[in-house]
Amino acid sequence: MKALEILFNRRWVLKSEDKDLYYQIRDAVGEVRKYTTEKLGCQIIDNSMLVKMEKIPVIPETFMGIQSFTSKEEYVYLCILLMFLEDKDAQEQFVLSQLTEYMTAVMPGEITDWTVYTNRRRLIRVLRYVVGQGMVTVTDGTDDLFMDDVSGEVLYENTGASKYFMRNFTKDIMHYTCAADFMESDWYEVDEDRGFARRHRVYKRLLFGPAMYREDGSEEDFEYLKYYRRRLMEDLEQMFDCHIHIHRGSAYFLSGEECRIGAVFPGNNSLADILLLCFGEIRKKIENKEWNLRQDEMCVVDKVNFEALICKVKKQYGSGFSKLYREMPEGEFVRNVIDEMTRFMFVKSEEDTQQVRVCPLAGKLKGGYPEDYLGGDKDESKMAGK
Fold first, then answer.
1. pTM to 2 decimal places
2. Rounded distance, CA 125 to CA 77, Å?
3. Of the candidates 10, 1, 9, which has an alpha carbon nearest to the alpha carbon of residue 28?
4. Do residues 10 and 35 make contact, with C-beta atoms less than 8 angstroms apart?
């Protein structure tokens, strides 16, 4: 795997966790830095502890969050934990009660009432995440003790990596007034006239997400695709095993067999198969003029109709699903399917209008069972044995 692909797939490469890989990446960091700076505008952090590529997206998407987190409170806990670690030296130890006392002092109120089981469970989820990322290690004890009782203790050790978790800002963020301010950068403003920023946006949007849609972001980004189409395709297809597809309202980075960037769809799992079946039914709706495409290649349908299509897929093909999805309640099944479609940017839900935007990417893929498939919502394996 190329050094660049490794840095795409990981938050960082820690010397303490994989010394051989760390030195392998450092040997190639000069070439990698040249490419990421020129094409993506991404900074490479390279020091005696780790190597990291700062992957700051142009447009934050749902799938870019921390997948193990299930609430906003967990992100709050993470930020306070990073503040706590900021004043700790590498290899400095602390007990869990020191952290909870600090968090209570920083943000008093219900969110830091540790007698509440939900709060303790959320904090443990955050701590397990930072342990998994290599920012702290567990020296003694188990977090299950704290999960069961507020007096439970765990001894942790700071590794020092947490200082590189957050991105570096070129301005004082205390002056920021909205979420969009966090996406700005001083050097973007300096280089805007020279076209660097536009190139960086386009490369990032293609490489950091499953799809690039005209309706999202700046119209200038698609103008760049129009004028530099051939150069961009040659550059990316030479660097990675991939194919670049550019359409009127969308563009895609399609991975080849040897490409190792990010999650790949379809994966070898039942949910991916279900999505492919749904895409086949969506295509039928559009081909039969039941659902209409807009000029930007988007298809907007009422949420109730979209959910009905998913239920139809379950009823028609459910016997071919794994037991988990075959026996899953209808409402939960629909939520799982829509969440997975959203994660890969196949659809976007519009809660205010109760509509679903079916994106062009959903039209590039479809799946189906063999012609002799019996169908229905019963277990076909049992039917075949009769």
1. 0.85
2. 10
3. 1
4. no
